[in-house]
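Usage example:
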Amino acid sequence: MSTAAEQQSTSQPDAYTPTDRTVPTRSKERASYDRALVHAILDEAYVCHLGFVRDGAPVVLPTLYGRVGDRLYVHGSTGSRPLRMAGQQDPGLAVCLTVTHVDGLVLARSAFHHSINYRSVVIHGTAHQVTDADEKRRALDALVDHVVPGRAADSRPANAKELAATAVLSLDLAEVSAKLRTGGPNDEPEDMDLPHWSGVVPLQKGYGPLVPSADLAAGIDVPDYLREL
Amino acid sequence: MSTAAEQQSTSQPDAYTPTDRTVPTRSKERASYDRALVHAILDEAYVCHLGFVRDGAPVVLPTLYGRVGDRLYVHGSTGSRPLRMAGQQDPGLAVCLTVTHVDGLVLARSAFHHSINYRSVVIHGTAHQVTDADEKRRALDALVDHVVPGRAADSRPANAKELAATAVLSLDLAEVSAKLRTGGPNDEPEDMDLPHWSGVVPLQKGYGPLVPSADLAAGIDVPDYLREL
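Running the assembly step on the lines above writes:
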């Protein structure tokens, strides 16, 4: 799998091609199409927000995902709505998949210039049901390894019944953009002497102490891939 | 403002009424319509994911928001796409606004039962441009106070030019549900003796050291509402 992903990435350019949908109408300087940046933003988050249209109205659901090269996977019960819809619809389901990190709170002297520092990726495209059995297994491994790298190899793989109950959607990274804001507030020159504190409150993420299952068998040590978190 | 919000909340029931769109097809036991829980989830997050339909395709954008009672506000440039669309469309713009917290990684013995602990709120509704000047000012205060409570009163309010450049959308909390997962993995009885560590990796959020603006005037202390973070 990694070999295929590496071959794919070496044969592709370093940036995604902008489209009408991925060029912002405002703050164009915050947009990026850099492939490595997009992958890094995607790999750091746990949950994406998957948008689709049902009965003419938008639906946005949080869901886990995994990445293999330039393809994302999401999964769910074969009975869940977006997965049913993608299976029923040919040629696939139009989706918008968005991932966002909030890195800091930007406090300006003026209310107007308050903002946040963030990194986001927005992907437009068409999601398809994965029907190939091998790809489906690789996708499920990627989903587990996205939660904790190395975990897929240290868990029981899905059996036939579980595979049959799980639907997987694929979405190619093609129409993609990142958007990010960094740095301090952009106050107006005439506001500089106002008596308000200004600056950035950084947000930090971390891990709490592990909570082993109450019924964990004796003698099972915490694996290295968890110690490294 | 708080008086109005309090009046509103005391005159309303403690739960939102479920609808076809807010009753999940699966994991119904994870859904909640409790008003206080919904408000708490909304108030704890910084960014929502706002979904709407453009040219028949879904769009999902991360954006700041603020809450006043049972009404949410998002804002943006008068030139931004969803705000333009909501202004052009009568009666408003169909949206789905979703907020998600990831609280922990759930590592089961089987790949199939891997999950995350999360709390999310999904709101379906119609967003309207706020045209009343007083409501617009209150909405902008709520947006700033959502980032840091108490900050709106300690910053320069928007002037006429800034107000004219800012569009605000309102979305009533009516068709709303929360969904949450807590606790450890739900492994199959036959997997209990497998040699894989299982349990939960809690995710924690915190604040880093404040980064004052480089040009911050001397003698401006860190305000109490920031010390309390």
